[in-house]
């Protein structure tokens, strides 16, 4: 997800492209605001990776009846400079600081094994200002980039004690994610299962990703597999994950401020009525002239 050195990962590449597009599109009438957050899910608890305090407390996950699940107290840092290279450097610094705080440990399979899932979010707010009236409207998008910890077998990793507990929680959340994906895939393949219960709350990971998996989002899953024979079962499981995930169909709509949308629609209606009135007036003039000519 992050990459290293010149081999940039998905997150820095996406940020680079995003800020490049912002620089090309922004104007006095169209402005953008970019904010980022970075968190890890460790042993079913959420930690803010951008919180500078050394003794971090786990954060609570809550659910808003309109906005959906969110992490209460999670840092959301604004990036205000639209110069691409400066923004990318700022993002790199934030990611680097967050990665330092992420929980890693050595196992028999990996000397720097991720012991948590991580979610890096980019919140983009677009503001369009009507120069005639000064009325503005907002559209908000959230890009959530999720780095999942790999599934583990204690026999292979040699995990004991705390490492074993971490691996158990990783596997639990991945199992729940697989179950949620299967339920959502079944809903799309069979309309009769539309009201079937989806166990989002069985893990913190799936609860936080509720909107990304089955809500107002476009979702892409990248499956990483190994060609090694020793990893055959894990590779097969990962491929089954991806196969089920591709059967999920979401219908995303633009998150537009409802008041701004009403104003925009009313203005469009006024313009349409003006055009209709103009055409009716012109037609009446022609008819009147025609009547005079006949007389």
Summarize this entry quickly.
By secondary structure, the chain is an alpha+beta fold. It has eight helices and eleven strands.
Q: Any key phrases for this structure?
A:
alpha+beta; 8 helices; 295 residues; two-stranded antiparallel sheet; 5-stranded antiparallel beta sheet; 21% strand; Kinesin
Task: Describe what this molecule looks like in 3D.
This protein is 43% helix and 21% strand. The chain has helices at 10-25, 84-101, 154-157, 162-189, 204-208, 210-214, 232-245, 258-294; strands spanning 3-4, 7-8, 30-42, 45-48, 61-64, 68-71, 77-79, 104-105, 113-114, 117-129, 136-147. With 295 residues, the chain is α+β, with helices and mostly antiparallel strands. Helix 1 packs antiparallel against helix 2. The chain folds into two domains: 3-256, Kinesin motor domain (Kinesin, 3-Layer(aba) Sandwich); 257-294. The longest helix has 37 residues, at 258-294. A hairpin with a 2-residue loop joins strand 3 (30-42) and strand 4 (45-48).
Q: Supply the number of structural domains.
A: 2
Gyration radius from CA atoms, angstroms:
26 Å
* Overall body shape: elongated
Strand segment count: 11
Helix percentage range: 40-55%
Using the 3D structure, state the CATH architecture of the largest domain.
3-Layer(aba) Sandwich
CATH superfamily caption of the largest domain: Kinesin motor domain
Number of helices: 8
The average pLDDT score comes to 78
Task: Specify the structural class.
Answer: alpha+beta
DSSP strand content: 15-25%
Unreliable stretches covering 5 or more consecutive residues: 81-89, 105-112
Q: Tell me about the biggest sheet?
A: 5 strands, antiparallel
> What would CATH call the class of the largest domain?
Alpha Beta
